[in-house]
Amino acid sequence: MFKKLACFTGWLAVLCLSLIFSFMLGLWQGWSTPGILLLWLLVMVLTALLWHSLPEILLLVRGKKGRRWFTKYRLSRREYVLFNHWKAGASVIKRIQRRRTHLPWYLLVGERGGKSTLLASAGLPRFYGDNADGTTAPTRTLRWWFFRDLCVLDLSSNFLNGAASFRQAWSKLARWCTHIPAPGGIIIALPMSQLMRGDLSQLHALARQQRSLIEPLVRHYGERLPLYVLVTQCDKFPGFSLWQHQLSDAQRQQALGYTWSVPPHIDGQDDTTLQPLFTRLHEGFSLVRLSMAHPATLSAPEYNALLDFPEAFARLEPALRYTLAALCEANAYFSPATLKSIWFCSAEPQVENQGRRTSYFIQDLLTRHLPALSLKRSGLRWYQRSFGKTCCYAAIGICALWLAISASMSAMRLRSGLAELAPDKLAAFVAADEQHATLALPWLPFMPLFNQQQREAETLLARIPVTARPARQTLEAYQQRALSASPAQQRHDILQLAAAVTRWRQMQHGTPLDTLAEAAPISDELTQNVYPSALSPLTRLALERYYIQRPYGERWLQNAQRVLENLVNHDLSLRWLQAPDAAFPPLHAATFWPALPDSLALDGKWTQAGEATVNQWMAEIEAAADRTEPIFQPLRESWQEARQQAWRQYLIDVTAHLSPDETGTASRRQLIAISQNQSPAMRFAARIVDELEAIPPEHAQPWLTTLRDVQTLARAGDGAALLQRTERLNKQLRLSLADWFQGKTQTAAAATAQSAQQAWLDWQKSRNSAVNAAVAQEKPGDTLTRGLFTPGQQKPDANPLGTLLPTLVTLQERVSPDEIDADVAAVWRLYQDDARALLANAMASSACWLNAQWKSSVIWPLGKNAEKRSYEEQQELSQQLVGNFLRGPAKPMLSVDNNGLRAAGFASMTLPFTAEFSQFLRNAFPADILQDLPQRTTTKIQDQKATLQAKVAALELQQSKLEKQVVKTTVTSLPATIAEGAQVIPTGTQLLLNCQKGDQLLSSMNFADKADFTWQPGQCHGVTLSVMFPDFVAVDQINGDDAWPWFVSLFSSGETLIDSHDFGDSAELLKRLGIKQILVRFAMSNTRPLEEAWQSWKTNADEISSLTQQISDLNEQSAYPQPDELAAHALSGLPDEITQCQ
């Protein structure tokens, strides 16, 4: 279960990583999302096909697939059984090899000496076949042992000393082993009993038998197949079992032996060959012997044997060395073999059950050492293998066949008698011969012969008499003629010379005549020679190529390049390059708006066709000059910016000519085009975006960026709802992945893009609704403008034209949230053209309908039975009809301003009234005619005036009551004096109160005189204070209704200082006398009733004054003509047409 889960997790990780890689590559290359997903699916499909077909391909390459079907019929019965046993394990190895990185397997050979018992008693889990822990039977043919990290193929001892049938079967088994991955090595089992016996002849015979058995595999794999010697039955050695019983369980599982890092040189006469092995064994045995001390369970003989065990075990070295020499020494009969390791192990009976055995010193060998050693192998060269040899022989045969075929075909291509051919036929032969590919395989071996034949033909052509031209004089004359021509002609001459230079260079490189003849011919004034007129163009071309390849032709080409450089660089402004040409005609605005003038056009060089043409011209010139022209570099660097500026100015000019307030009807086709984003404005915007598509976003100006954003929204909105949703999800996915790959977030940008898309959909919805309403209206009417001029009287969004421009403003705010400049404003004026066109169509339709209503409700009734009515009756009828018309159908289409009635408007566009009708409205009718009597302004003014007058009458009644009140105040005079001293002092004072009922006076000669003053509000208007001096009297006059209350409050403290300039005519005299202030004393009593009476009267008087002023203002407003009666007007002043109906 865990393996299945791990496999599933691994494949899922591979799928996710491959998908992420595909998106990274696709976003980097700018591919579309379907393209990225297609790439990912293609990679997955190819990987799966390759994964499943690789074993079959390998098997097919090795040439064994076809024969495996007939294996059963090509083998004997014993061989077929052997093949089935082998195939059972080989299929497991192949399957595991396909699923895992490495599974080594080893071949175990040797005499019958406990090999299978050793593997079966190792106590390791097996992963294939019978895993029962029972008594192991002898291996009769072969047996597969699958452990966790390796596999062992155990061969029966019958293959060593068996019958001839086993030897024949072994030859096939060795060949089968080469069909699966190479083994990690061969394990050769040597019984300990043979080594202890010490019979060198038997050991030699046994080693030779084993060496002969493994020779086919050693010869096939070479040094990649090392040998591992495994000494079995070590428990038969005296003291070995006793020694291993003293070890721990972990020590018994370790490998007992030695592995050479560098394979040793095996020499039977060299005593040091196995010295590393036995030295390490002796050291290990000695250390273990010391750690054992004196076990109490051992007897004395056993303890002595245990102590003598390391030295006794070393006595096996001569026999083992002799056996290895017979096994591994190189000779004339066997291939060199490599010894890698020697190990010792045993399988001893268990104490509890003598029928079972336990293997020792084999566990770590199978789990650690052998899997690690299998990774160190070397390989053969590719040409040493059978497949490589086959490829080499096949290549030699193919080359021989190729030479034979080439010789036969070359013989047919060679031609004799070239000197007898006419010049034109000779040139045609050269052209035909050059059609054969120079490096084509059929002609490649004999190319020197063909080259010699071509040189001979060209030499014969060169014998034709021609007249040579001087290079310098000819080309300088061409230069002078070109410099004196117009810019367009200069460009023609420069391009003609550049084409000639390019053609000459191609001739120098040996370009075939057919290729040269496809291009435009070289002008006669630029050829190197004057050729006879009888020669064909192909012959002239061949002669021109021949002479340009000579040293004189090289000088001619150099002079031509020098003249070309002079012509290109003579004008730094490059006027000749940018001169108008028929290849890029100007782009007229009338192409999109037929009503616009033809003079409104964009120079054709700023279009894509113009850019491509100019770039092609510069490329031709630079190809001829064989270098990049520095004079072109500034033009290239500024070209994109200049194109943007040109298109920007063109956009501003076009939008300036689009009248925002002209009305006119639109045809059904034009309305449908608007709904399909094919209106003139949309086509013009799409043309601009397409023309400037090559400009990268980082170099685009703000207006172009805005236009691209809106066009992107328009393209996204053209599809169906599902496609739109898919496109939005696709865009969000790509933005999210790009941000994730870059390690940043753009949530705000994604939200802005989504809101802009929604704003575009809202605007498109409003536009389509307006188009549908316009298309559905079959005849002129007021439905298209209904509620447009009085939006407050209609439900929200009742008229789609009312929401069209606001939604466009919302779209503008979403796409261009920053403050826009004039360029970006021109972009939005362009998109307003559709809304203006729909609004103009609605205005024109309503105008025509209103004009028809005028004729049917005013003109026609006046003309009917006109002879039966008097002039006065006609005039009265006209007033009634016009009033009904203005209050009826015309009312929603009229508005009021300071000048009176005028045509209603919306978004700076008004109904197209005629000038006569507009003048008629302003002069003949007041603004209130459109309103009913209760809603008229004059009615409201009269109501307000009546209310104010009633309030004034009430206040005046209350004021008369206040004026009848009598307030008495007692005034006591005290001496007046000069506070700072003076030459003249006052001699007395006099106080006079002026009232309507009479004056009241108090005179005092600076004594304490007393008098009572009676005051009534609104009845006393003045107070006179006189200060008497010996020779004159100073008088201070106080006037107004508040004179007495103010005077009483002034003397509330009993005295006050009066400045000398307050005394009027006496001020100058007082100044000359040095009197600045006069201290006047009056004591006032009973002043509180006076103050209360004055405040009540004053408040009432102020309110009356305010109401009176309001009444006066209302009187001024009501001074305009009253709308109760229509103004009389002449019948001849009635207009026949009131709107400009188109």
TrEMBL record:
> What InterPro entries does the entry give?
T6SS_TssM-like (IPR053156), TssM1_N (IPR025743)
Keywords assigned:
Coiled coil, Membrane, Transmembrane, Transmembrane helix
Question: Does the keyword Transmembrane feature in the UniProt annotation?
Answer: yes
Q: Which residues cross the membrane?
A: 38-61, 386-405
Q: Keyword Membrane: yes or no?
A: yes
Q: Show where the Type VI secretion system component TssM1 N-terminal domain sits.
A: 185-351
Coiled coil feature spans: 938-965
Q: Which PANTHER family match?
A: INNER MEMBRANE PROTEIN-RELATED (PTHR36153), TYPE VI SECRETION SYSTEM COMPONENT TSSM1 (PTHR36153:SF1)
What protein is this chain from?
Answer: Type VI secretion system protein ImpL
